[in-house]
Fold this protein.
Amino acid sequence: MKSRILATGMILAALMGSASAQDLVKFHGVTAQGGPTAQMFPIFMAQEQGFYEDEGLDVVLNYSKGSSDAARQLAAGNVDWGIFSSAATMQTVQRGFPLKSIMQIYYPDTFDIVVPADSDIQTMADMAGKTIGLSDLAGGEVPMTRASIVETGLKEGSDVKMVVAGEGDPTTIRSFTEGRIQAYAGAKRDLLLIPAQGIPTRSITPEAIARFPGDALSVRAETFESDPELLVKFVRATLKGWAWGMENDAEAFELLKTKYAAASLGDNPVAPEFWELVKSYYTAPESVTQHGTFLPEAWDFYMTYLQLGEGEQQALAGPVDLSTVLTDDVVVKAWTGLDVASAQ
């Protein structure tokens, strides 16, 4: 991976312009994250290095209560762009709010389901009659958890219950020790915190679920149609932030630990492990020749699972035409003139 990352520095000197503060175009967005997190490091680094300003943009990152909330904010026009789960993207489109996903942010899904290492539970099938804790019933882990339940042939509610049980914090630990939950589903960042508090864990997420795609950058269809050049500028600066952070990972991590302490877990002993995890999210598969482009087959695979089950367990009432949702046009134009082969 290192050889693929080192060459990203070759793009950082490219396409550097400048703009005065009064000329900057406001382009504000929202993430599924509830607060600053190292998972948004490309945006933080692009802000710190002035890449957005170089493109004439005033970029502000806002936070939300999860993927569903972030998608609602974008659909309502409260923000110009959003980063949230692929499930929330497809659900929002199916509800009649046209979105365009213009960049894959994380390649792998960032959620997992774990049990205490000494638990008798070996697979999701063993969760019959038991309870799974989650950080938020509106978060991106919910569709993943429901898909995992369906994959095992169980039913939510009658077989497996889901309850809110903290964010890998003392609430989660108490929920385990008091027997309120027997498994926990959440962001891998939150899962790192559990062993550090005395409960070693292991994953029981079905193997197929690991193929689900991670979060994507989306805009309203009207924005995509009305100002494509603005989107190219934004994505180009974000790619520069990604490249800078991946190449200068030690410096980026130090910046996150100081100026963005909450984002990197600060002095928490698992902070370095979290940073390594985050970098893995941003390492594309070998089949990807231009970072940020989509793997439609991963989305299609996830969409199949989202249509399984009944009632609330069925996240999608039917298929979504992904050809109208996913587009690589913006990323490809953003990479124009850059040494993409060596950067990958």
About this structure: Residues 1-19, 339-344 have pLDDT under 50 and may be disordered.
